[in-house]
Design brief:
With 256 residues, this protein is of the alpha+beta class. The chain contains 6 helices and 15 strands. Helix 2 runs parallel beside helix 6 and helix 3 packs parallel to helix 5. The chain is elongated and about 65 Å long. It starts with 31 loop residues before the first strand and ends with a strand. 32% of the residues are buried.
Length: 256
């Protein structure tokens, strides 16, 4: 049974209620990582995840894995919560207690509700005390008070780096959003880790490193005989002519 091409999943925008909605946590969903901005930055405009060059971001880059990457939101002392690919200019502003109080008194202005996932797995708050105070308020407003798998960094910066690294190292990819079955009964899913139906990825066969990399479009993912597998469309050359072919490939051969 072949699976049809499906549109990319979109993140639903959560309305801002006067009171917190019912929490929606799911151990099968990717983790959510809230990171504080850093005083050390690039000297030019860049995506937020690239602009911040502090030691916590160095730890993030050292430990994050493409196959088990968490969803990330960055709390900027100037801009509020930012998706990591938001391009911003360098600035100089710190999260003082007064600034944290100001944000919490007008929280909807800084939330960007559409950037938050509708369902979350484990949650990590990475940053200083004032940042984490704002993060907890934002989580309460978005999901309610009962996020059971909530962790926070504590202690000195060395301990916080270690805690962030351990959190990232412990994340495991998960299959999400069942979309059907193969003829043999194998369940088909829309997403596994960072890989989602409709997404494009670079395919490079580990077993044949001499073959050139190529672009593949994900149709679905499933648990194959040799582990997590993606059904993809990829351009192959057949008798010297390019042709779009359907292949089953290990998710370990796909890269962002």
């Amino acid at each position: 049974m072949q699976c049809n091409s499906m549109p990319m999943l979109s993140t639903m925008q959560l309305p801002l209620f006067p009171h917190a909605p019912t929490p929606r946590t799911d151990a099968g969903e990717p983790a959510l990582l809230l990171m504080a901005c850093s005083s050390t930055k690039l000297d030019r405009d860049a995506r937020a995840i690239d602009l911040y060059r502090g030691v916590m971001y160095a730890s993030y880059r050292a430990h994050v894995r493409s196959d088990a990457a968490p969803r990330v939101l960055i709390l900027s002392a100037r801009h509020g919560f930012l998706p990591p690919d938001t391009e911003i200019a360098p600035y100089d502003e710190r999260m003082t207690r007064q600034r944290a109080d100001q944000m919490m008194s007008d929280l909807p202005r800084y939330l960007q509700p559409a950037a938050w996932p509708t369902r979350v797995g484990s949650v990590m708050l990475a940053g200083g005390a004032e940042y984490r105070r704002v993060m907890r308020a934002a989580l309460f407003r978005q999901y309610g008070p009962q996020l059971l798998a909530l962790q926070e960094t504590t202690g000195g910066i060395g301990m916080q780096r270690s805690q962030l690294g351990a959190f990232l190292d412990g994340l495991q990819p998960t299959f999400r959003d069942q979309m059907g079955r193969h003829a043999n009964g194998t369940l088909l899913y829309r997403a596994y880790g960072w890989i989602e139906t409709g997404a494009f990825a670079t395919l490079h066969y580990r077993a044949a490193p001499a073959l050139p990399s190529r672009q593949a479009r994900v149709l679905c993912v499933f648990e194959g005989p040799s582990g997590p597998t993606a059904d993809v469309e990829v351009e192959e050359f057949v008798r010297g002519r390019p042709k779009i072919c359907q292949r089953w490939v290990s998710v370990r051969d796909l890269h962002p």
